[in-house]
Structures are given as structure tokens and as C-alpha cells.
Design a protein that fits this description.
The protein has three helices and seven strands. The chain has 143 residues and is of the alpha+beta class. β6 and β7 form a beta hairpin.
Amino acid sequence: MTDTATDLLSVVVEREISHPPEKLWRALTQPHLIEEWLMKNDFKLAMGHRFNLRGEWGGVLDCEVLAIEPNRKLAYAWNFAHDDPAYDLKSVVTFTLTPTGAGTHLRVEQLGFRPDQKQAFGGAKAGWPQFLAKLEQILARPD
């Protein structure tokens, strides 16, 4: 069976951030800052760069940079290989930054959850708001 995009579920979290897109972009693309709000990583801002995110829970996510539009859009594969199909995740995370009068509208979408991946989907629904709360704390620090 092959999955089509219409079969897949996504988690979307949106935030109004009171900082300009350039400041938010730095937090999304600098490895030491990514580690503070998301996970340990070997990220590089380069198309096709393969990297890992290492969770405190012991898991390792296999990622690849898929789209870069400076200060506007960043997307990467967010895959977790697992023997149990319910946890074997192949997804894409897209960060979209839109300038606003008060700062930036941030939209985060993780697309790729199959209907049988209820626990992974629930984990993402709970996890992204927590990650973004940490991101906002980093952005609130003086430069």
C-alpha cells in the first residue's frame, strides 16, 4: 500500500512572535540555538545537508534540508526509523515566517503521520507547543 498526501495527517502550530523574521531565522538555523530549543544536532544551512536530531528520550531523527528561503521558509525531512510501523515515521517539518507589523507570524507544520501512528501524532501535537515555548524564551533574551 502506498500513502498519498491526502491519507497523511499533519500537526500545525502557529505563533505570533514579537521579533523580526531575521532574529527568528537565526534561532531556526544556528546549531547551538537549535540545541537549546529543540534537540542536539549537526545541522548546517545547506540544501540537501543530512543531519541528525538527538532527543533527550534517546531517539535519533534522520533529517535532510529540503527547502531554504532565508528569513521566510525552512523545511527538512524528520524521519524516525523504527521496527514497529506505528513508530516508523517519515515526515517533513516546514517553518514558514511571515513578517507582521508586530514581528513575525510563525507557522510550523509536520506532515507525514499515517492514520495508524496515533502515538507519534499525539507526541508531535504535545511536543511542538513545548518546543516553541522554549524557542520564544531564547528569542526574548537580549542579543
